[in-house]
Amino acid sequence: MDYNEIMKKAIEAAKNAYVPYSKFPVGACLYCDNGKLYTGCNFENSSFGLTICAERNTIGTMIADGGKKIKAIAIYSPNMDNCTPCGACRQVIHEFQTDEGTDVITKIGENLKIYKLNELLPEGFLL
Ligand code: THU
User: Edge-to-edge, what's the strand order for the sheet holding 70-76?
Assistant: First the structure.
């Protein structure tokens, strides 16, 4: 899978973000072990704590479609280079890691940066 393609879809998804409060759009695209790509964006709420991040929105779509594991996930915000997942989203990605470990893809200028989720969340909790 071409990680530039995944990032392109994350960039597209960020355009649909509903962010009237933070004005901080985020898009995500994940590559599932079923071979499909799923996208999502963040959406906020007047009750601020109800905000859903782009990553968790995307993972919810994967689960609803029967997807099981995340091989890679790209995150993009036009407002920030190297937009990595927040702590809550790192834990949620961890739940669906592949045995090889999930790649987390960000963008810095024109370049992609690729982390292993375990670097961003060492010793993640799993029942
Ligand atoms: N946000 C995400 O969508 N993903 C992240 O990993 C970081 C934060 C959103 C939540 C909120 O709508 C806005 O970015 C500012 O925090």
Answer: 37-41, 27-32, 70-76, 103-108, 111-116
